[in-house]
Amino acid sequence: MEHFNVGVIGSGPAGLSAAFPLQAAGQSVVIVEEYLWGGTCPNYGCDPKKVLLAAVEAKEQAEWMQHTGLIGHNEIDWPALMEHKMAYTDPVPARKIAGLDDAGITHKYGHAYFVDEHTVSTGTETFTADKWIIATGARPARLSVPGDELLHDNEDFLNLPKMPEEVAFIGAGFIAIEFAGIAAAAGAKVHVVAKHDVILREFDQDLTQDLIAQMESKGITFHWNFDTAAVEETADGRFDIVAADGRRVTSDMPFIAAGRAGNTEDLNLEAAGVEVAGNGIKVMADLRTTNPNIFAVGDVAESPVPKLTPTGAYEARYVAGLLTGTEPEEISYPAIPTMVYGSPKLGQVGMSAVEAEAKGMRVNSIDMTPWLAYWRHKEPIAKAKVVLNEKGVIIGATVLSAEADELLNYFTVAINQKQDKWAIKHNLYSYPSIASDMGFFA
Questions:
Q1: CA dihedral defined by 93, 98, 103, 106, rounded to 10 degrees?
Q2: Nearest to 362 by CA among 385, 395, 388, 383
Q3: Is 176 marked as a binding-site residue?
Q4: Are 180 and 188 in contact (CB under 8 A)?
Q5: pLDDT of residue 198
Q6: pLDDT of residue 351
Q7: 315 among the known binding-site residues?
Q8: Where are the beta strands (DSSP E) in 155-247?
Q9: Residue 222 assigned as binding residue
Q10: What pLDDT does residue 179 have?
Q11: Which of 109, 186, 254, 385 has the fewest Cβ atoms surrounding its Cβ within 10 A?
């Protein structure tokens, strides 16, 4: 039976971010994958989504500039865009395997489950490790309603050969808002079915209302306080999402986008003494599970941070450092930016404006729409809320604009470096640009 210093279950960004530094530090490593090498993000998650958004963003900017330097109508060619996406995603698994081979990391294919706290089997092979890192990620949460099996998920959407004429998304979080914008830009009639009367609960609700208005201006319809009770196929081959109060939303293709659930099933965690909690695996401050020889990182870990690709990779690098003696006994997270790639984008980092106002702290609300960076291509809306402490140090920011992801990264650096207004103004940026506007926020 093969034995390794460390075993990793899952080859997504978190799993790989643990495996490579451990192998480089002289540890023998085995990594096990049961589906696509590379995991969700590069195969059917954030990366292909961003590829599709390239066409959406180009189309929107061209529309803003109509009769102000540009004329002519642009349409998204969905099959051609899907070919462009596949040119990126199709080679991913082979590239990941090649990288593992180059690093000398042993890789196994199959569904891994624990036999005991040190032993894992794939059904055809069994091997042991001194330490194990669980990085199995998450999957779309399903609805416990009749007809749930009729709902499609994010992987289906990102592999659509043709955009349906009418689509519906159940959910009001990141995925629903992002995919709704893509589908609408591609010419579909779009419905967003929300269980409550808000979207993106984690974000500033003033700015989410602005986002809703922008989405509605693109023809997206929101159905509020819609408690989905069933999904039914109609006589003409379409699908009804049925609410508890009898309302119906009909579409050619309904999608589930109501959150994510950690992949904890069928790992036989009980045999390893690993407990599940909430939406994933229970972890301590050093990301150990209830078994001190087994760690959990990324989307499957019930850690107190947003479930994002960067946080999963950060946790994995921390565990690798902990196992090689270069990290402390308790993980410390920097400010973590979260971004909704909607139309427009909405992102926040650090303390939210709602939390700051409740504490009586200073919040600057800024309409950036007339600023050159946004006015030059007639962007319809650009806003920010910036939180400063009593010393004038930026400790939080929320941004709504087509360039929110870029601006938010500058805020993230400022927060992590605890920059006050003088430090921010001391930096010189290329001008005029999104970055050069940073001096206006302090």
A1: 70
A2: 388
A3: yes
A4: no
A5: 97
A6: 96
A7: no
A8: 166-170, 189-193, 221-223, 228-233, 239-243
A9: no
A10: 99
A11: 109
Q: Does the annotation list 301 as a binding residue?
A: no
Contacts of 157 (CB under 8 A, 6+ apart): 179, 183, 255
273 is in an annotated binding site: no
Place of tokens 């519906």: 168
Let me know the angle formed at the C-alpha of 353 by 350 and 359, rounded to the nearest 5 degrees.
95
Q: How confident is the model at residue 73 (pLDDT cuts 50, 70, 90)?
A: confident
Binding site annotation covers 441? Answer: no
Measured distance CA(221)–CA(293) in Å, rounded: 50
Q: What is the mean pLDDT of the chain?
A: 97
Which pLDDT score, from 0 to 100, does residue 422 have?
86
Q: What is the pLDDT of residue 319?
A: 99
**Cα separation of 59 and 74, whole Å?**
6
320, amino acid identity = A
Domains and CATH numbers, the chain: 2-140+261-323 (3.50.50.60), 148-258 (3.50.50.60), 344-440 (3.30.390.30)
Model confidence, pTM: 0.96
Convert the pLDDT of each residue in 172-201 to its tens digit.
999 999 999 999 999 999 999 999 999 999
Helix/strand/coil for 294: strand
Cβ distance 131 to 293 under 8 Å?
Answer: yes
38: alpha, beta or left? (left if phi > 0; alpha if psi -120 to 50):
left
Query: In the numeric block, which tokens belong to residue 249?
Result: 């939303």
204 carries a ligand binding annotation: no
| Model confidence at 92: pLDDT above 90 | yes
pLDDT of res. 260? 96
User: Which of 83-92, 101-110, 229-238, 359-368 shows the lowest mean pLDDT across its residues?
Assistant: 359-368
Strands of the sheet with 338-340, listed across from one edge: 338-340, 345-350, 394-401, 383-388, 362-367
Tell me: is residue 178 an annotated ligand-binding position: yes
Is residue 227 part of an annotated ligand binding site? no
10: Cα within 13 Å, side-chain hemisphere: 31
How far is residue 395 from each of residues 109, 340, 412, measured CA to CA in Å? 44, 20, 9
- Residue pLDDT, tens place only, 219-241: 999 999 999 999 999 999 999 99
Residue 57, annotated as binding a ligand: no
